[in-house]
Amino acid sequence: MHNKKSLATIFIFILLSCWVMYISLSADTRKLNNEVVAEAKMEEISEFDEVHYFRSTAKKPDFELTSQSLEIINQNLMKFIEPQGVLFQADRSLKYSAKRGNMNQKKQFLTLSGDVSLKDKLSDYKSEKLTYDGQKKLMHASGGINSEIIDEKTRDIIKISSEYMSSDLNSEIAVFTGDVKGQIQRRRRYEGGVKFQSELMAFNSPKSQISLDNYVEIRRNNYYLTAGRAEIFLENFNKKLKYYTLYDDVKLEERINLPSGKSQLRRAFAEKLEARQREGKVILTGAPRVEQGKDIIKGYQITLKENVELVEVDDAKSSFSIKRKKDD
Questions:
Q1: Is the torsion defined by CA of 243, 246, 247, 252 positive or negative?
Q2: Per-residue pLDDT averaged across 50-61, rounded?
Q3: CB under 8 Å to 60, separation ≥6 — which residues?
Q4: Eight-class DSSP state of 99
Q5: Are 52 and 65 a contacting pair, CB within 8 Å?
Q6: Which DSSP helix (H) or strand (E) runs through 261?
Q7: In whole angstroms, what is the distance from residue 79 CA to residue 97 CA?
Q8: Distance (Å, rounded) from C-alpha 26 to C-alpha 289?
Q9: In the predicted model, what is the mean pLDDT of the chain?
């Protein structure tokens, strides 16, 4: 009798175990089937050749694309070859082209690679890779970047090459990093321009201001300048205000043409240099020192004028200027 009860208990235990295993396996099977179905849905692909694709939202143009080939995955992710098109934003239209790219329509995220070009009415960016987040209005680019930006207030043309670039279209600030080289061309060509070089550059469009940082070099007319950082205020070119300012270990070199027809090298050193373009002068402060021929000039503040041998010294123990009668 005892054995029968034991066998019955064992039998019931086995049945319960089998039932639990069955339920578990059934759940796993349903889960697997669901995953297979989901995977099948993820691989839903539509393919097109020689495409002209246009999309609008709320009766407003949103996205336009012409490409050699187009894949649309799950009616969202678009992959294209040789794309050319337009991204329509609330305040601007961005024209783009590349060798290949993709677009996540839900996230409004565009990725382009190979001979990339992205431009609007005030800027033109070229690079090897570029991403644009349409929701956040953020742009990132890398590889052989060549950019051309028009300052909306002054109409100055700013040409920049760098390794990386980030741009916030909301704040209208673009940042360039890695072996940055650039040039500012005035609207009136006879006014000349400025060449610059640094490791980092930021262009603030609303302020019409360029900021340079780390190993800064600037060439303007006859001046060759180096410093730790610098600022250029594009709107102040024709005003009695600072056009550009350099900070931290500032050095200036200038070749002065003398009346005799010879030239003389002038070097200047300071912690800060402020250039007033309209007045044609630079003001040196922060332990300034000028080496001109055999003369060494020191003072609290020193003012130089381009290609003029005269040196003005203010707030020194004795204020003086040097003007040679004979050339060295």
A1: negative
A2: 77
A3: 88
A4: S
A5: yes
A6: none
A7: 13
A8: 87
A9: 82
Q: Enter the tokens of residue 282.
A: 């630079």
What does the alpha-carbon distance between residue 198 and residue 176 come to, in Å, rounded to a whole number?
Answer: 10
Q: CB neighbours (10 Å) of residue 74?
A: 12
Residue 289 in contact with residue 310, Cβ under 8 Å? no
For residue 235, give every residue at least 6 positions away whose Cβ sits within 8 Å of its Cβ, in sequence order, or none.
153, 154, 208
User: Tokens 């205020």, residue?
Assistant: 233
Q: What is the pLDDT of residues 292-305, one digit of tens each?
A: 888 888 889 999 98
CA distances from 126 to 82, 170, 187, 284 (A): 15, 20, 23, 38
The model carries a pTM of 0.78
Cα first-last separation, the chain: 130
Token digits for 221?
């007319």
pLDDT reported for residue 204? 96
Q: What angle do CA 269, 218, 180 make, to 5 degrees?
A: 130
Q: In this predicted model, what pLDDT tens digit does every residue of 65-124 receive, in sequence order?
A: 888 888 888 878 889 899 998 888 777 888 999 999 998 888 888 999 999 999 999 999
Q: How far is CA 151 from CA 157, 172, 206, 233, 258, in A?
A: 7, 11, 9, 11, 38
Structure token digits, residue 279: 């007045």
Q: Which pLDDT value is given to residue 39?
A: 47
Q: Are 122 and 208 in contact (CB under 8 A)?
A: no
Select, from the ranges 10-24, 207-221, 308-322, the one with the highest average predicted confidence (pLDDT): 207-221
Q: Rounded distance, CA 110 to CA 113, Å?
A: 10
The domains of the chain, with CATH numbers, are: 32-314 (2.60.450.10)
Q: The tokens 């500032």 sit on which residue?
A: 250
Q: Which residues pair with 25 in a beta bridge?
A: none
Q: Which of 310, 313, 314 is nearest to 323 (CA)?
A: 310
